[in-house]
Amino acid sequence: MNNVFMNTYNRLPVTFAKGEGSWLFDINGKKYLDFGSGIAVNLLGHNHPALVKAITEQAAKYLHVCNYYTSDVSSAFAEKLVEAASGAGMKNVFFANSGAEANEGACKIARKYSLLKYGQGRHTIVTLKGSFHGRTITTLSATGQEKFHKDFGPFTEGFIHIPGGDIDLLEKTLDEKKVAAFLIEAIQGESGIVLQSQEFINAAAKLCAQRDILLMFDEIQCGLGRTGTFLAFEQYKDTNGNPLKADIITLAKGLAGGVPAGAVLAGEKTKEVFKIGDHGSTFGGNPIAAAAGLVVLKTVNTPEFLAENVRKGEKIMSALRKNKKIKEVRGKGLMIGADIENESWPVIEAGIKRADLTKNQNGLLILSGGANTLRFLPPYTILDNEIEQGLEILDELLSC
Ligand SMILES: *Cc1c(COP(=O)(O)O)cnc(C)c1O
């Protein structure tokens, strides 16, 4: 059956048929504990009652109106989302359907902002090595990983990748005559959970402000409360200890808890760059996604819920740090990477193969973050006893 798919994914030998909370069940009824949330998408786990209710009720009302109009539910979602990101300086939103599309929108805003203010030639967008910003031709250009840069050229021009942490190089690269924007993940996800230092973020914020270079945070994986603040970069403060402000923020993945959704949020400088006709998306702001997104925001963005993500994350990280097979643990909240001696992929495979009905054994779903890194992005709703079960299974997988 699988050969009807294009061969783009290295798929594991499992086909899922049902989900419940932190668990997925395959077509044979075997049970798997989900430590990956479908790559940071199922923030509220599977089959979450409030999410199911909102989606089904919305489906019964109407599924889609085009962007000639607005809808009650997408207006409400936009309002709540802008409010949630207002502490980071956000004023309005454009809805897309995916992360790549959100970053495309961000790059378009950056290019136009700079063109209108400074004229031709100041269009470069700087990003970091190891970053991941999407799979379209332009967001591949933005992605600072060589392995994605083959076979598909010519790519969109005007992107430069520099290593994170090098403040001198950053200062040189953020040339105010050439650079429109700096696009950065506060915590890189895809390349194995890489955190940026406070000094580097402060330097970036300062240089961007001084040179009128837009500071754009890709919060597609690290945002939405996963690290304990609504946006991951909100944990970084400016040199006076005040919250940092961004010029643009992109969100996707868990934004609608499993329904496709993406968003570009704009601050004071950038909120009026797009004019009528500049950008669009048929499905952007889709009512089903908006109804789901409202539930996500309402559930996730409370101090108690965010604090729980931190507590659960620390519980996982402290257990991982005690594991002798693990060399290094990095993370914030429920965004965790663990470097191991051996390759990560066989461990991930073993997590699937462990599921066995005759032995009454469950599987464990883990993600990879590069050749030797295991990546954990559990649902926020995971229970303490599930964390403990998952850690036990992991221990067993690593001991084989
Ligand atoms: C997943 C991801 C993207 C791309 O999102 P898609 O929805 O797959 O297009 C972009 N940036 C980051 C940080 C991501 O993790």
Write the layout of secondary structure elements.
Elements lengths: L15 E5 L2 E4 L4 E4 L2 H4 L8 H13 L10 H13 L5 E7 L2 H20 L5 E5 L8 H6 L16 E4 L4 H7 L5 E6 L2 E2 L5 E2 L2 H14 L2 E5 L29 E4 L10 E6 L19 H14 L2 H20 L3 E7 L2 E6 L3 H10 L9 E3 L1 E2 L4 E4 L7 H16 L1
Helix pairs in contact: 2-8, 3-8, 9-11
The structure holds pyridoxal-5'-phosphate.
List keywords for this structure.
400 residues, alpha/beta, seven-stranded mixed β-sheet, four-stranded mixed β-sheet, 11 helices, 17 strands, 34% helix, binds pyridoxal-5'-phosphate
Task: Provide a descriptive summary of the structure in words.
This protein is of the alpha/beta class and 400 residues long. Helix content is 34%, strand content 19%. The chain has eleven helices and 17 strands. The strands form four sheets. It has a seven-stranded mixed beta sheet with strand order 4-12-11-10-7-5-6, with helices on both faces. The longest helix has 20 residues. It is globular, with a radius of gyration of 21 Å. The protein binds pyridoxal-5'-phosphate. The site of pyridoxal-5'-phosphate (PLP) has 15 residues, from helix 4.
Structural class: alpha/beta
Secondary-structure element series: EEEHHHEHEHEHEEEHEEEHHEEHEEEH
Ions, cofactors, ligands: which are bound?
pyridoxal-5'-phosphate
- Beta-strand level of the residues, as a percent range? 15-25%
Cα(first) to Cα(last) distance is: 31 Å
Number of strand segments? 17
Mean pLDDT: 97
Basic shape: globular
Please estimate the helix content: 25-40%
Radius of gyration: 21 Å
